[in-house]
Amino acid sequence: MATANVVTPQSEDFPKWYQDVVAKAEMADNGPVRGTMVIRPYGYAIWERMVAEVDRRIKRAGAQNAYFPLFIPQSYLAKEAEHVEGFSPELAVVTVAGGEELAEPIVVRPTSETVIGEYMAKWIQSHRDLPLLLNQWANVVRWEMRPRLFLRSSEFLWQEGHTAHASAEDASAYARRIHTEVYNDFLTNVVAVPTFLGIKPPSERFAGATNTMTCEGMMKDGKALQMATSHELGQNFAKAFDIVFQSDAGESAHCYTTSWGSSTRMVGGLIMAHGDDRGLVVPPRLAPTQVIVMAVRDGDDAVDAACASIVEGLLASDVRVSLDRGRGSFGRRVTDIELKGYPLRVEVGPRDLAEGVVNLVRRDTGEKTLVPVADVVTTATALLETIQADLLAAATQRRDSQTVEVATVEEAIAAAQTGFARLAWDLVTPEIEKQLKGEALTVRCLQRADGSMPDHEKEAGLTCIIAKSY
RNA sequence: CGGGAAGUGGCGCAGCUUGGUAGCGCACCUGGUUUGGGACCAGGGGGCCGCGGGUUCGAAUCCCGCCUUCCCGACCA
């Protein structure tokens, strides 16, 4: 039977749909101060899974975690001209503390290049100290004009990596390694969001960087979302903070530094890349709960026993499983489960159980399969991998079908209304970029013809991706 | 920060034009019947009407300021 919409349909109002999902899947609430965000347990559980997966990959790439302070002397920001200019408009500054006006205002970190640069300078003496590979998990503050839960909040959670190297080549190679082996691998293989890897045009570069790389994902409304970013900082910060080392030849030289980050914005990307009109859809490898087991009828001893044993069997196979404790009718509980996007639901009912089977229901397709109780674990674990692959395939298919090659700026503007436009980069002058801005469009990234990442925006034969973005 | 819309129990709304201190649906609590796709009956609880000021005998309602939210721009992970 047709039921009333639980959330606003995507086709009716995509932003409203997004807010409905965030609220009804109990992911986050607005904080009391404009732009701040309360991350609720379910939203935080998803973030914790992201942290675990990203952190593992960062460590595999050789970086170590550390922690630097939330408060940064304002003078630090000023040391790198482009950096301070880029961040000034969004800084939160402390001018009074301990009941007294401060002699030097303190900035709440918008990012930590400056403090970390100061300490890198202190810790690095010799080429033997290089590369220095650091990462921190932290909150940062960037005052936002137009906040949106997860996508753009004034305070958000992220990891920021900061490294120092002896040569430009080494720095560049490491930033690229992080970009592909950490970010792209995580986004593709765990979040199941295919990305376009590329470099940002100079106009979109991080303040103080010589090169900025991005992972651009496509949301279901055809808009782009930068899901992670990596920067080559050249010697800009090394010069500003005197990060110098002595080479094996005994000469001193400035380091080359990099920085790279991924944030709670990825949660927003997850929602908009896979969610549907029933709510959230979480890929199995990311899901805090991969399988939810529910009794179709309460108070039936045989059903309860079967549920318990299925949960136990899945746990023993390292499946992240929960037993549904929802209240109310069957339909209500199913609706709530679907809102949360658990990849697989096991419905245990007395009638099926009498036949020795239970019902496995995929969240992504809604497909139901009756499975003998004895086969639940093997079927479920296989299905989880299928769902993971299918979500990536569907997202890739959607992205590719909504990405069109165009030959002119006019065609690009038209195509970018519903997706991505690929245009020859040499057609895009600064004037054209302005024109695109007037159409609410930006150049999301530059790629080589084969889709790989260029070394530099001046390479011949590059294409660019033009789209609306979050 | 510019342009638009809006803030009334947890959520969604009506009431405001034509001032007389609040109502509906869902949710919640109790009891009962239910339970294979948002159950039903009965009985309950809950609102400084965003905040502050002003006009008035009297303000959810009229006026001013601020805060917050949403949409569209400029800015951004």
Layout of strands and helices, then pairs:
Elements: H1 14-24, E1 28-30, E2 37-39, H2 41-60, E3 64-65, E4 71-73, H3 74-78, H4 81-87, E5 92-97, E6 100-108, H5 113-123, E7 132-141, E8 155-165, H6 168-189, E9 195-199, E10 211-218, E11 224-232, H7 236-241, E12 244-246, E13 252-254, E14 256-263, H8 265-274, E15 291-295, H9 301-316, E16 321-323, H10 330-340, E17 344-348, H11 350-354, E18 357-362, E19 368-372, H12 376-401, E20 403-405, H13 409-415, E21 420-424, H14 430-438, E22 442-447, E23 463-467
Parallel strand pairs: 3-7, 15-16, 15-17, 20-21
Antiparallel strand pairs: 1-2, 4-6, 5-6, 7-8, 8-14, 9-10, 10-11, 11-14, 12-13, 17-18, 18-19, 21-23, 22-23
Helix pairs in contact: 2-6
The protein binds one RNA strand of 77 nucleotides through α1, β11, β14, α10 and α11.
